[in-house]
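The protein record minuted underneath.
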Amino acid sequence: MRLSAATAAVLAAALTPLALPAPAAHAAGTATPYDFNGDGRVDLAVGAPGATVGGQAKAGAVSVVYGGPTGLRTSTRTLLTQNTAGIPGTAEAGDAFGAAVASADLNRDGYADLLAGAPGEDTDGDTNDGTVVIVWGSASGLSGARTLVNYWHTDVDRYGQALAAGDLDGDGDQDVAVGSTGPVNLSFVGGPISRSGAFGGGSGAYFPSSYSDAYGITSLSLGTVPASGHTTLVVHGRRTGTDDAITHLVADPSISNYTDWMTDLPAGYVSAIGDIDHDGYADIAVGNDRETSADPAGAKGGKVTVLYGGPEGRDTSRTPLVVAQDTTGVPGTAETGDAFGSSVFLGDLNGDGYADLAVGASGEDSGAGAVTVLYGSASGLKTSGAKSYTQNTSGVPGTAEKGDRFGARVLISDHSGDHRPELTVGGPGENSGDGTVWSLRGTATGPTTTGALSFGPAATGVSTAGAPAYGSVLNG
């Protein structure tokens, strides 16, 4: 990997880039992320960072539910905690294992691997140093693990609070980006990464002073649009001296100056990447669910800003599309506290070649929550024909109740292998903080509630003691 530390000139002397030898040559080909057993169906990793494990509150857990011909199957699952045999570490109070997840075929063996962050992990006497665990994919699913290297122990805390994995530098290997707090708040570990032996090198980044070290990098999104071949990385944090959102598009991390390395984006807390208009360039949806009284970049009830891509990255000739619940054609009404944009995901729900947008509004109706789906087209995202789903929608299991937070996380992914992805929704507030996941099958016209599936922590082996917040994290 050729990543080098990206540092502003005034900070260059403070950070020494790592350039360790790369491992030997490897076999070509990589698996689809989150296809842990190589069957052509995407599996689901559900984070429950508040889960009690072995009597330790908020130690955290990850449930992996495998895909099948009819979609997700809770009968085929793997439960991962730091007390699971082969997983490094020990479940301790506050570790928050599963607070972030990512996936890539790190060792290029044809099976996707899972990365799970435990930002509350104490390491060598360093409170909340954080750690990231790699769990290896295989024909039988996930088994065996190792700890991802942290080259910057003295300059980071809460390592693993945000994760992304993919080919960041275009060399064909799968790399890892790790968000943390502290002066080095974004780290890169170069691929390929093997089951044993030395890691291939990495780098760390001091972000500009506009990023708060106390919050660090709070969220990462990464996507590759095949026609362009570019990997897009979007970075979220908080502005120094406030808790307002700050967001940037990160280009090639081998560039050594922020002028060329980072592009300002509309401020938000989450984002998704996909090709909405099928032109071969990555488009970005940025969610900001806060009111303007809490964040000047927010909006009443929350909003999502869609930015279209072009040959040079963001296409500045196209006006960004701002979508809220007061936008013509979008179901609902923008009301204070709706939190529209609390989660976003781009994927082709109806198989027409255009990426569609799922938007969570976890604060809708006093926190009962809702999800809105808007469809892509050759001209971009359409607001006509949008659909809304809640637990009161016919066919969706359960009943909408205050605090369920249905839509706190959304995911569009093909768990059945029929090329019509499912819409999967997390509601971590369901049942007083136990949390629940819903999955709606895909069709040629979008999600259907017929045969909709829902399951909570108990169905996948997670303790309901305390408030596990099951579904607060889904496939990154």
